[in-house]
């Protein structure tokens, strides 16, 4: 009996041990190590919030649950929100993670972006244009060439622990909508995360394989490495990258023509089988380029205006058909249960695999781990549970957009009076106050310091300095006047104002570039002068300075061969800014907010628009619109209200923009008026705009401000 009992006990032990090994294998843990098997996580919730109505942010729309949309159209916008529930085996972060979106139909916009949504405790069925959560840091941008089968984003830096993660999909356009498959899509191609713990190089014995010729994705890889594909890509698609060719394609096929529909995908393990993919909608023709001519935006210098383009550079009526998703359709998820986000075989990373570095700003991985600070609800409809947006390092908000003004420009009114008048008119305080200085003026002034430290309405300062007694080259070479001034300025700032502030040298430099190198005012001279100014102030102890390079952003300057030479370098630039103006007179610059932010030109078709250009050139820099405004026209009095409403609908299409500063003047150099109260309807629309949750970013009060050293970049 004893031997028999022991045998049964041994059998039980062996059975339990076998079961434990099986379970360990199922979650990828064997012998204290973790397997390399990837994991595929379908979206838990998704919804497309679309508003193309020209009148109101909360116009009711019919439902469409199988499509996600991103882009701008007819003064409105579409933003798609995604939520994933991620369970990392043993809590180990993946070595690599990608988020995939399948193109449903039609041409993709030239830029598609993915942003973190810091607050993940939302329900898709309850989101609309007014209650949608605010966007945080941009994870990445892709640049499709037209008809890619899918787009994908590297989200490795975000997925660092188990929990809920939320993202937003946007496209910075005024005339195009990207359409993707949603969770409820009949094609069974939901937004998908692919997580992997091994991304080693391609085995030398394995030939490099490619996707079928009719399928391409954006972007390509820059290295030969193993990359897990989502289950809904065709089975014959090989999981190896080809070398990057710089053309945005994954395979040899062209992405500029509508491909044939792919074969029905194989169901992802654990997902229900659905009907085959429907035929793609008819191909769209590319959106026409918008025309351009030089702007007469205000400047604090008497410099000459840009060169006038030819008269042919004027807008032409668009013959482009509307996008395949109807502008009157609003997406809303069904109330059915979300698919499981935990596949049957879990994986954990191998201890020998080092995860990729975490981004400096990652979202809260779960609702329970969201910022603990209490959220003050917005009177305009922000979800009560959503936390406040706060300033982080370098004055970058963790969500939302800083709201500011340069008041009373080109007037004799004191700036303090102009600011308070503007705030009274618009019925809200400004988070940023923009002031201009030149020559040997000391700043911030006592008045500016008082405005910044107002206990009722603390403000960030944006201080603009333009030298007048030396050329850019002389400044870069250590001009005695300039260096003496900078040293005195540094001493003043350290004594009078240790708080963080934005600073730019010689905004809109394009207008003063001279190609003749003998004049000392080339684009490279500007970059060198900017570097010298910032480095000298830092060396003298001005560690609270947040440097901003500010472009004029006018065509034809943007397309000049010297334009890229203006950039001073990542080490001396914290933010990238530009100035943008719209017009109420039909013609150049007439349109909605998205047109102003990403203006193109028929005479320079290769120019993608400033925002799109900046997204590609400066992927790791926050963007600021240091001046923006609408030039009023008495022949189109209804336009200001329409334009300001478009700002509220379309601001989320530009998630890299973290500060928006209005330039208010009754008359610029050529007599144009940008005051928001020229019409009663325009003022009412601007007031409503300022109350939106996206602009509820409060500067820190004095007792909460970080020490000056806390705002420096690493190694700065």
Structure description:
The termini are far apart. The chain has 716 residues and is of the alpha/beta class. Strand 18, helix 6 and strand 19 form a beta-alpha-beta unit. The strands form three sheets. Strands 3, 4, 5, 6, 7, 8, 9, 10, 11, 12, 13 and 14 form a twelve-stranded mixed beta sheet that branches. An eight-stranded parallel beta barrel has the order 15-16-17-18-19-20-21-22. Helix 5 crosses helix 6 and helix 9 packs parallel to helix 10.
Nutshell version of this structure?
Helix 9 packs parallel to helix 10.
Helix/strand structural class: alpha/beta
Helix content: 10-25%
Which overall shape is indicated by the principal axes computed on the Cα atoms? globular
Count of alpha/pi helices:
10
Cα-to-Cα separation, first versus last residue:
78 Å
Taking the sheet with the most strands, its summary is: 12 strands, mixed
Gyration radius over CA: 27 Å
The average pLDDT value, as a whole number, equals 76
List low-confidence stretches: 1-32, 53-63, 202-214, 221-225, 235-254, 260-383, 701-716
Number of strands: 22
| Assembly level | single chain
Strand composition percent: 15-25%
